[in-house]
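Quick one:
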Amino acid sequence: MSGKKCSSVSLDVERQARANALAQIESETRRISGLMQQVMSRLEDLSPRLVDQFPAEVQSAQNWLRRVHSDIARHKSWQLTDERPTLEGAVHQLNILAREGSNILSGVTEAKKSVDRLQRNAQMKLQELDAVLMVQQDILEHWFPEDIRTLRKSLSEIGRLHQNDEFRAVQEQLPLIESDFKIAVGRARSLEDEYNRQNAAVSLTRLWRDLQTQQAIAKSVLENASEGLRVTFWQEVENAERWDLFAEIESSRLATIGKEAKIEDIQAAHSILKPLLERGKDVCVGLEQAFVERATQLRNAAQETLVPLEEKLKGAQNMLTSWFGAEETARLSSELEDVTNLLQRDRFLEFDAPVRALNLELEKRLNQAKEQADKHITRLYLLKALRHLCSGKGFKEVRPPSYERQGDISSRIILIVDTLDQGPITYFLSLEDIQADSCISHSYCFHEFDQLSDKLSKDFGINTHFEMADGTPRPELKQRGEQDEPEFWGREASA
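Output:
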């Protein structure tokens, strides 16, 4: 028997190598089948539009799938062969096919990811443009209504392309629409800014005019106010003058800002003048309240004090003139006139002290006048009693009683009676006492005076006691046979 002979060990190694090759063929076949299913799934996920956008990746995948179907069909024939080289060649071929499948799957997957990125980016860009358009639609519709309608139409067209997976067309047109949108917004914003700048300039001009008007009002109020009001409400006047000075300074400083100024400068000037105007309004309100409302309150309060004082002085003029003379009444009236003049000149701060002093002085004078009047009543009662007693003693009145100074009731009342046998007696009735001047002897005179005092006390309740007016002791009445003291004419006695 001829031919090569193999040992049992060699045969075992050969069988083992063949088994390993068949196992690898089986493993690679399963791996390729899995790759094939994934590639087919990725291709199915691509719409016809997307297939057209990735022709190279799709063509490569389809060619690989055809090769896979061809090579896998030979799988059974590889399992039936005993030739080791053939099996090892099949393993190598399947390994290459699996690596190509992995690359194909990566390419298709990357294409799908690229599609997803394009879709997301386009969606985000569309949403961004739509959001910005919503924000800017008012200004665009105001200035460029045709442009915003065109932009909306273009966005709708891009949205349609996006829905149809025409992402490359979307990518090409989005930058153009975005550029047109930015240009339209820029133009509209420029017009809007100029419009706002002009409006701000007009508003600033109106603010200047209002500020000048407010200054004129404040100055007019101050100029027409009396000096008394300015002194009384010095703080409000000082606030107004300080505000007017500050307004003049700021007006001069901002006078260079005109209608063609930048909006930032106009707004800065507006931010200064607006609160300045509001402060001026508050200042004028403060002046109005001080010069009208508060001044009226002070004037009414002063009148409540002054009117009763005027009425009191008017009602007491005759009494005051009677007891203190016309000059004193004129002096008090002059002081009242001075106080009234203070009120008429709105000198409220200077009014209270003199009116209180005058009121106290008038009250004091009235009390004094009342005391004098009471004393005068008593004096008249005494005069009546004295005349009655003199008449009862047979004395004759030389002339009717009269005031020492004609028409002045504060002067002494003079009563002259003729005793017929002892000569005349002159009585002087002042508000404080009674004096008598007699030419009869002192001792007899005081004897008569003592009888007169007794009668006044008993009949009229008037207590008197006559003494020498010069303070010398009263002469004593002599006993029978005693020599009389020398008589001195014109000696006076008082009670």
